[in-house]
Amino acid sequence: MTNPENMPTSGSSHQQSVSSSPVTISIFGATQSNPSNPIAIDDDQQEIAEGGLFEKKKRKTKICSLVGVQGCNGERWSEESRVHSLQGKAGISGGTTTHFKRHLDGWTRRKVNLKSHKMLNLIPSPVNKEVGTVSNFQYDQGKMRESIAHFILMHEHPFTIVAQEGFNLMMKTSTPHFQGISRATAKNDCMAVYETMKIKLKAMLKNVNKINLTTDLWRSNQQIEYMVVTGHFVDVDWKLQKRVLSFVNVPPPRGGVDIVDALFKCMNEWGIENKIYSIAVDNASYNDVAIRTLKTTLSRTKKLLLGGRLFHVRCCAHILNLLVQDDLKVVEDIIHNVRESVKFVKQSDSRLLKFSEIVK
Predict the structure, then answer these.
(1) I want to staple 256 with a disulfide (CB 3.0 to 4.6 A). Which of 12, 290, 327, 340 is the partner?
(2) Residue 26: beta bridge partners?
(3) pLDDT at 14
């Protein structure tokens, strides 16, 4: 008989078998020889306590991220709680959020299309401003920039006016769609307007038979001398037109040859060298030399009217100015005394008040 003390018990044999024989656990094809070590689990998988198996996590929908993740008491909501919250707000029962995603995608497309939507604009009647017609209005940033360029050129504003707070407030009040521009953009827009108007003027001058020019030199506040050339002509509709054709710097010392060179460049640029009827200038000596040289050059083409006898026209305003200046020299002392008296009275408020009482 076998001694019961030497016989292994079932519990001890089981413990020995567990401790002596290694256990291999297979997880989706991967083996783990030592169960005591942690098992690497992918982030897209989670463990279920009942079966010890693994399954993929549910994807979080985009719509859930748009809902608050905390409840009223401060605790964080789960994805299911957020989905049910959305469904409760929309009054829809079910376990999906596809309809919310379709709604978001549709709203994105509508936001893009809203930019091209037209608005209703009331155009008042020229007779009765209270009565008008309704028309479609669509904001155009390009036309607005062109209008700003015309505004700057017409009133000689600096380019920095587009960056001023008051200007942008006025534009935003007129239309909320306005987008501010920089002074560099304003400068480029003005140059684009100039090039466009230049093309139109060239097309207009092609239908002109004769044109008269006037030119003069003047000095700016920066002590820079410029020469301006203005053209006067009658268009195809028999309307008198006046256009500035050239505005260039003529640095000193300048003579008749320099004036002729600037005038001839202007005429060639506009294609009117054979359409000149007359040129009006003041009585400066260098202008006489310039007109004489230019007349000789243009006479070679035989395009001058009456052989050029009407080509040189002296400025009547300049002649009248010379006459008035000569007459004022006779009363120069009287004018000086009057000016000094006015300065003396305006230097003090008490003097000005006393002078006003005397006048009364």
Answers:
(1) 290
(2) 31
(3) 43
pLDDT tops 90 at residue 163: yes
- What is the DSSP code string of 104-149? HHHHHHHHHHHTT--EEEEEE-SS-TT-EEEEEE---HHHHHHHHH
Pairing label, strands 312-314, 276-281 = parallel
Which is more confident, 49 or 230? 230
- Cα–Cα dist 227/247, whole Å: 6
> Which pairing describes strands 211-219 and 276-281: parallel, antiparallel, or unpaired?
parallel
Residue spans of alpha helices (H) in 206-255: none
DSSP 156: T
Phi, psi of 354 (to 5 degrees): -65, -40
| Helices (H), ranges, the chain | 10-20, 79-90, 98-114, 141-155, 165-174, 183-205, 256-270, 285-298, 316-328, 332-346, 349-359
Structure tokens at 260: 């002729």
Which residues, other chains included, contact 70 with Cβ-Cβ below 8 Å and sequence gap of 6+?
Answer: 76, 77
CA pair distance 175, 178, nearest whole angstrom: 6
Please choose, from the candidates 215, 218, 208, 288, the residue with its C-alpha nearest in 3D space to the C-alpha of residue 245: 215
Helix (DSSP H) and strand (DSSP E) numbers for the chain: 11, 11
Q: Are 54 and 41 in contact (CB under 8 A)?
A: yes
Average pLDDT over residues 233-250: 90
Give the pLDDT of residue 8. Answer: 46
**What are the φ/ψ torsions at residue 216 (nearest 5 degrees)?**
-160, 160
Count of residues in the chain: 360
Contacts of 28 (CB under 8 A, 6+ apart): 54
Displacement of CA 173 from its chain's centroid (Å): 17
Token pair of 14 as six digits: 């089981």
pLDDT at 1: 46
How many whole angstroms separate alpha carbon 248 and alpha carbon 216? 11
pLDDT at 251 over 90: no
Which band of pLDDT confidence, cut at 50, 70 and 90, is reported for residue 53?
A: very low
Q: What is the pLDDT confidence band of residue 165, given thresholds at 50, 70 and 90? A: very high
Token pair 């050339």 is found at 229
State how far the Cα of 234 lies from the Cα of 302, in Å rounded to an integer. Answer: 22
What is the pTM (predicted TM-score) of this model? Answer: 0.55
